[in-house]
Fold each of these.
Amino acid sequence: MSPSDVNHRLRCIAGFIGLALLVSVVKLGALQLTGAEHLVEAGRSQRLANVKIPGYRGAVIDRNGDDLAVSLPRRTVAINMRILRIHRGPNRNKIARQIASTLGLDPTDVQRRMNAAEDTDQWVYLGRNIAPKKVAATTAMLSSDATKQWLRDVPATDRVEFRVPKGQKAPQLDDLTNLLDAQETTQRVHPAGESALRVIGKLSADGTAAAGAGIERLYNKQLTGEDGLRTYERGTGGQTIAGSERLVSQSRPGTDVQLTLDRTLQYQVERILARGASNASARRGVAIVGRPSTGELLAVASVQRDEESGEMRLSDSPVAFDSTYQAGSVFKLVTIAAATQAGLVHTDTAFSIPWRIQVADRIFQDHDEHATQRMTVKDILAKSSNVGTIKIAQMLGKDRLHQALSDFGFGRPTNVGSPSESAGLLPAVADWTTPDLAASAIGTHVSGTPIQIWSAYNVIANKGRYVAPRLVDATVDASGRRVPLPVSPSREVVSPATAAEVTTALRAVVDEGTARQWSLPGYPVAAKTGTSRMPSPKRVDRKDGYVWEDGLRHYVTTFTGFFPVDDPQVSITVMLDDTPPGSSGSATAGPVFSDLAHLSIRELGIAPSTNTATPAASASSTTASAVKPVTGPVRAAPAVAGSVSATERAESTSRRSNSRSSRNGSNRSTSRSVRGGVGNGANAAATPTGGN
C-alpha cells in the first residue's frame, strides 16, 4: 500500500471518530438543554409507587345518631420477599409466625403464602382488613432492638448467601424495617350486628360498591367517598426512600345517611317478633312500628325459620317491602271506609247477615256458622263478617272500591326507600268479575305489602289523610351540615268525619270484637285482625287453589292498628306468614302486637289517655287531643325485670298444647318442609272463609 493510501485511510478513520465525537457532544448538549427533566422524570417514575388514599364511605346512622353501618380504617398487608429471602426455612418460618401473631392472622396461612412465592416475586399478599394498630405494632416489633439482636445471633447455617443483582444494595440480616407494605383501605362494619341489616343492605365482596337491596344501594352515590392519591419512591430493594412522599390529591369522605329507625327499638322488635313467630309455628314474620302522623318508621323487622335448624333468624330480604300478601280481613277497612265516605252506610247502619252468600258461581262464608242476624256496620267490622262486608261492597260497586284501594295506597310502591320494594297487585278494574268484587272486599283478590297495609291504616289514624312512610330522614355532609330530605305531601283520602266513624268501628274490634283480649288499659286501641288462606305455589287440587302439596291449607295472620285513638302516637302492623290450620290473627299475631305496644309505650314515653270515650262520628270529635305528639329521639329504656310478655305467655300455652297433642299422638311439626308463597296467586275457585 502506498503512503498516500495509508494517509487517506487514516484521515477517513479520524474523520469518522471525529464525527462520532461530534454527534455525542451534540446529543449530550441537547440532553442537558432540553431532555434532562424528561429523563429524570422517567427514572423517577420507575421508582415511584402510587398509593390510593381511600375516601371513607359515609355512615348509615339511626335517628339518634348511633351508627348502623360505618367504615373503619384498615390495611392490606404484603411482605417483601427480596428482604426475606436472606433467611432460610426455619428462620423464615419463625419470622412468619411472629408477624402472623402480631397481625392477628393464621400463622399456617402466612407461612404457606411466603413459601409458595416464586423467586421473581418481590411482594406477597398476606391479608386485608387489618387494624392500623396491629400493623403499627408489627412494624415496631420488626424494627425493635430485641428483633435485631435475635437476627444477628442467627447461626450462619440458617442464612442464605444472597446474590445481589448488579446495582442493588445487599439486604442486611437484621434490617426488617421495610419488610412489610401496608396499603390503606376501609372495612364496612355494623355495630348493631345483623339487626336492621336487611333494611340497610350490604356492600359487594370487595367492599367498594353496594349490592342487593337496601339503603347502601339506593344511596350509594351519596355514601361513596372520593379517593385521594399519594406517591413515594422505592429503592432497588423495595424499601421506602425517606422524605420522598408527596400528596397528589386529598381524599373526601362520603355523605352520612340518617334513618328514622331507632337502633335499640329495632333490636327489641326483632327479638319479640322472632319469639312470637316461633310460638305461632310460622315460616316468616314481619313487624312494623312507626309514627302515623309523620310516617316515620321506627322499626322494621322480618324473621324466617331456618330450614336446617328450625330456629327463627333474621330474614334474607326486607320482607316488609318486597313481599306481597293476600292479607284477608285487614282489607275490609277500605271497603267500610269507602262506603262510609260515599254516604251509603254509617257505623249504625244495620244489615241482615246470613252466614253464607253466593256470588255468581262462588260461595263466600263467615268464619263461624251462625243464624241469620242483624248486624250494624260496626258489628260487621268488629266480628270480621265476610258476608256483611261483601253486601256493603255490592252497594259500593267495583269502580268505587277499586278507586278506594288505589287511594289507600295499594297497587303502587310507597317509595319508602328500598330498591326492592314491590307495588303489590291491584288488578285493573276492567278485569274484575262479579266474584272478584266480593273477593277484593275481603282481601282475597288483591295483594299488598306489609308497608302498604301499615300506611293504609295510618290514613284513619291521620283523620283521613295519607302520609307516605319514611325511612330516610336526612343526609349529613363531612362538615356536619344536616340536610333533611323533602317530605312527600300528604293527601286526603276520606274526610275526618269518615275517619272518625271508621275509628269507632276499629275500636270496637278491640273492645268487643275479634281482638278484645288485647286491649290496653289507659290506651284505647283501634285495630283489625286478619286471617287469609295462602294460594298454593303449585296447583295440586283442581277445585281448590288453596290446598298445598301436604294436603293442608296454609294461612297468613295479621294484626294491625294504632293507639291512643284520641291522638294516635304509634301504629303497629304484625304479619305472620305460613301459619298452621286453625290459626287466627288474634291468636297468633295478637301476642306480638301486644308486646310491641307495651314496648312502644315504654320507649316512646307515651302517657295514658285521659279521654277513653269512643270517638263520635263527627269531624270535631277527632280534633280533641289528650296526648301531645312525641317528637325527638326515641328513648332506650331497659325492659322491666320480671315482667312476663304476651308472647311468653303464648309460648307457655303453646308448649302445654303441644305436650297434650304429643300424648294424643297428633302433635304437629313446627318445621314443615313445604314453603309458602307470598304472592299473587291465581284467584282460585275456592270457598274463602272469614278471618279473625
Amino acid sequence: MKIDKTKITIVLIFCLLGVITIAFLLKRESNIDLSNQHRDQANKQKQHDNATTYKQQESQITDNSHITDNNTEIQSDDIRDLEVLLGDLIEGDIGDALDFEWSNWEITCDFSDKNKIEEIVRNFPVIGNAKLTQDQSDQLCNRITEMIFNHGCNNFNKHIDFLKKSGEIIGSSYYERMRKMEINRGIPEEEIPTDRWELLSKRIELIKNEHDRRSYWKGLVSEGSHITIFESTKSNLPIGSKLKQLRGGIAVYHNSFSHPISLEQAIGDQGKVIMADVQVFIAHEDSIGGVVWPYIARYWFDTVNNSWRAQKVALLRNRHTAYPIYILP
C-alpha cells in the first residue's frame, strides 16, 4: 500500500494547529482567571487601604497630644470604629455611613428629668491636657445640663433666665439689631420693648411660633458624647473641622451675648484661657428623619467672674440636609 506523504503532512499540520489553538484557548482562560483574581485582590487591597486611611484619620482625631497652645485647630474624639465604612460606603459618602452608624445608637434618656440628664453629663468621659478644679467641673456640668435640658424641652425663655443669672449681657449692637428686625416686620417703634431681655424673649417666641424653628430634639444619646478640656491662646479656633471634612456639613450658632469680660480681653490679660469642647449626641424628632447627630458646644472659663461662658455651638450635620434647628448658646 502506497502512503501519500502529502496527505499525512497536511493532517499533521492541522493536528498541530488544533493543539496550538487549544493551548492558546486554555492559556487565555487561565489569564482571565488570573486577571479576575488580581482584580479581586486589588479590590480587597483597595478596601483595606481605604479602611487603613480612615483608621489613620480616626487616630488623628482621637489623639489628644495635638492639643497645644500653638495649634490652630482642636480635633475631638468624634468617631467610633465603624466596620460599615468598608467597601463601597467608604468610597461614597462617609457622612451617610456615619449617619447609619449613629442611627443605631439608643437614646439614653428623654428631656423630662433634669436630674437624670445631670447624672449622664457627670459621667461624660473627659479628655485633654488641662485640669479643672472641682468647682470648675461642677459649674461646667451645670452649664451643660441647663443647655441640654432647656433645649430638649424647647423652653428658650427658661434658658434666657439662666443666661441672665449667669451674667450674660445683651449689648447695644445686639439690641439694635433686634429692634431693626421688629421695625422691618412693621412693628411701631413705641411698641418695641425697651427691656432688652424682654425683646429677646419676644423674638424667640416669634422664631418658634411663626417660623417653626426649635431644637427638634427627641433624646440624649450618651454613647459618643464626651468633653475635651484644653488651654488656648487663640479666641478664633475652628470648631468641628475634622468631622466636617468627613461629613461635609456644619452649622455654627454663635453666642450673640456680651460678657463682663470678653474672651479676647481674657486671653490678652492672662495669656491663655481654659476651654471645653462638649460633644453631645442628640436624637431628633421623626419629623426631621429621626437623625442622631453630634453637637459641639464650646465654653471658655472666665476666671475674673468665676464662670463658664458659651462661645458657640456647632451642629455637625450631613451636607445634604438643612433642617430649621434653632440653638441659643
